[in-house]
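Listing 4. Sequential folding, example run.
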Amino acid sequence: MSDLPNCPACGSEYTYQDQAMFVCPECAHEWQEAESSASADEGVIRDSNGNVLQDGDTVTVIKDLKVKGSSAVVKVGTKVKNIRLVGGDHDIDCKIDGIGAMKLKSEFVKKA
């Protein structure tokens, strides 16, 4: 048989390759091979520039962030040391000087 992947949309085994794309003749779904291997890169947390973050890294805030329930603001350029990565929507746990413990989204930081 064929070593081509099944269609991720409908599961059809009758896929074919058209240059760099895979095509399903049953549902007309088109995808690249990278989509089928995207699940291997799922658990990696990246910063706003695409750099891989790890526990203990130092990051810099790239946007003014309002602190919920307070009038405090985390300013652009604030360095945050010794981050801890967690799952969920806000994927960084950290302590910020003058504010305390908080959670950040990785899309608002860059690796220092």
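-- end of first protein; second protein begins --
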Amino acid sequence: MPEGPEIWRAASQINDAIAGKKITKLFFAFDELKKYENRLEGSVVSSVAPRGKAIITAFNNELNLYTHNQLYGKWMISGNGEEPDTNRSLRVAIHTEHSSAYLYSASEIEFLKDDEIESHPYIKKLGPDVVDPNTAYEEVLDRYKDDTFKNRKLATLLLDQGFLSGVGNYLRSEILFCAKVDPDHRPKDCSEEQIKDLSHYSLELSRRSYKTGGITTAPELVEALKREGATRKQYRHYAYGRTGNPCYKCGHEIKEMKTGGRKIYFCENRQKENK
């Protein structure tokens, strides 16, 4: 499933392609949405913005298209009106005179009025967005210190969009690695310094990933590894997906374990207190 940085990048690309432009044609695959095809033709896209892992496409008539990619959804942009070459199932197509946005394979698609957005069941539960430049460090720090979350294991808590919005599977491994925190720890098991580091890296790594297209490692490490001939897969992350490889910080082997049916990656030497 795309994480916050990927959703923010997708929303930015869609916004650049169709925002401020008049809609010439629309297509919706689901029958319950067909009535909006003619209704929205000739309207203008006001903005395209991320909300957690969802995207809100706002029109200038108090209607908003809510889409959530789930595991397989993907937006694609075309500048020439030709549909992208893909085997995915087309769900939504928004055409303007010079560009088009296509949504494939997503299942959560609905329309909301302006005054319904904040009360949407998914949106109203979202925690602070770690990619949003307006989210302050203090907001994130307060979440880690909140009694509501202090007894939950961090490996699962970090995937809860009601805790922090935008963190997913690769970001949780990277945040815990950089903060030197055991994935089995709960916030109440962490030192004050670890809580501060978790808050800091929740923001820094998420925003770095957004700016770099998915890279969480520090720029200087990326450049050093590139000079050694490393591939993008090798330099993209500190721990995520690097099972059996040496830790970039201490040289010990990166390991993996499953929690909640999903893999998490860690350096035992850096993160486990009882090695």
